[in-house]
Amino acid sequence: MSTRRLAPNQPATFAFTAENMAWAKQQIAKYPSGKQASAVVPLLWRAQEQNGGHVTEPMMRVIGEMLGMSPIRVLEIATFYTMFNLKPVGQHLLQVCTTTPCWLRGSDQVVAACKRHIHPQAETVSADGKLSWMEVECLGACVNAPIVQVGDDFYEDLDGARAEALINDLRNGRPTKPGSQIGRQTSAPEGGPTTLKEVKS
User: Fold this and answer.
1) Of the residues 39, 60, 64, 155, which has the maximum number of CB atoms within 10 A of its CB?
2) pTM score
């Protein structure tokens, strides 16, 4: 994670909306005196949502002041966790797992589709502003690799063509179906379960 850096162009200021500030104060109040820094992850997450999907340097200063933390400590957390985006993202961010199980099952094809149809460079917003992509570490569903996360949804059993179809649907606002893209039942083998199939009377 040492190569993760904030975007070079930063806004001058950041302020929570009134609603989000009230929410942030509720989160901080959950922790005993002297432990308010424990609220840094939820506050960063809410700030990122408010900001359209990425964190900024002024945001870290504001959150640091609220929690009694130096901005560099907030930056350390934001750069460690890939759930925090350090650069502007598209309306839909495709997080492509390229860890060994996904790679063995063809994640290179998924990355190639992202390069062709979104942007040749990761963490770069497409020309229409609708899409961006990045490589991430394990998404925790290796049996159904390759996997892509978009928002709160996971798309499994992808290949190049299925990734292209997903990108096209997202770009054009069509509904998508999370989960296995080949009809796999949860984590059963391809083609369906092979054991415990007999029904005993």
Assistant:
1) 60
2) 0.81
